[in-house]
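Continuing the series of single-chain predictions for the mutant panel. This is the parent chain; the variants come on the following pages.
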Amino acid sequence: MLKVLLVDDEPFILQGLKVLIDWEQEGFEIAGAVSDGREALKFLEKHQADLIFADINMPGVSGLELLKKIREGGKSDAYFVILSGYADFSYAQKAIRYECSDYILKPIEKVQLLEILRKVKNLKEVREEKTRANQKMERAYLERNMIAVIRGKYDSVDLGYIKAQMHISGVMRYIEIDLDEKKLDEEISDEDKRACQRKLVEICRGFLQENGDHCFFDVSGQEGIYDAGFVYCSYMAKEKNKTEREYLECFMSYVKDAIQVPVVMLVGKQTEDIGNLAKSYGTVCILRSCIGFLEQKEIYYYETEVQVSNEGIFLCKDEIDRLILAIEENEPAKICGAVDGFFKEMQKMGAGMGEFSRLNINYLVFQLIHLATKQDDNVNQEEILRRISEHSFREGAARGSRMHLCGFALEYAEYLAQLRKNVSRGVLGEVEREMKERYMENLTLKELSETYYVNSAYLGQLFRKKYGCSFKDYLNEIRMEEASSLLVHTDKKIIEIAEEVGYRNLDYFVNRFINAKGCTPAKYRRQARN
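Parent structure:
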């Protein structure tokens, strides 16, 4: 309801305005009715008004003086309507000067009043839409500047704008909350994941409330990563009387309950200077790359995951370099021997079997990414590495174990060999042909990668690069086209068509069809036949 303030020194005018129309039906509520300009000013100090009707000629503070005072003093931006018992152009001119919305003569007619209310409603809607558009633009500009700072590509202008617009103080961290893809249902399309990502950002802002401007959409900008980025400041936990860990655990619990899909939180290294936030972001990237090697958790803290002893940080550089060389040469026996040598060195240094995956894995990760980039810099190497690590995890092979690292190293060596052969020449055509022949089966990228001796993560990226969508989405497109043909050219029941093109769940098939064609299968059939 829009709030209305009536100001007139004649009681019967006030009463007449109140009963002349059904204000509530028109979307308005009379918030106050006062007899002069002074009372109106007092009212506006404590209450809000969207529309003010004021008599032009009142003792004390007149309608024109009231209008002047509230405009010059910034007390209200309400739409203002002057009421007058006589027409005088000079009064109208003064009213217009102070942004008066209308100038009407008494006695006020019902039709005239309704016209004004509807005009004000339209103006209010236009103003609010403009305000929303401005806020959206300001938000986008802030987000662009903040992401530049997070990634370390900024200048003093970016930094100055952020400091002026945001509450940034104390110890801070870059924190990322990602959809946990390895736990997501394989049927979820890229479009659905993107929708989940947008919902994730809104949920995070809901938890942060007044600090919602600290959360950003898609900071990584990487294919296959659906993230919400968050700049944490130490005052946030203090305001809730919690420790940092308690605060982040509450945050994670809130997000999990609200989004109801698997998510993981990566907590970057501390920094006390916003100019160094890129370093915190870099440690989150390290965590993201190494997550396949680490024990499964909901929250990963960089300081916890980096291996540190009383003497400093362990780094078995010689053994890791031997392993990298064996991987590059794609010699299985050498790879297994290098893994054994690495573990023996870790034991010699007194580190537990589960601890090796800390800084040593970080070093291994970056060396392997560099190795692959030399072969093909168009492929997202971090995602490949992460996925191979996940695929190498088998029942009975604990994360960070000798068996896990050995399986990963062997598969990564084969991936590098495929990069050198440039397997994209011809394999994708064979894969596409097989998809069109076997679309009704429960086809998976893993099965096809094994059939054509191609690493599944690499094949998935080659597929996306050529077709502009994921393997699963492309398979759905093929199924939707075949379903459309069957709907038009046969009289089969919809449930039969769903099963024939590979869907066992009718509701899921109908939802996918609506997303693809914009209507239900039944409506599509009727429209095509008409």
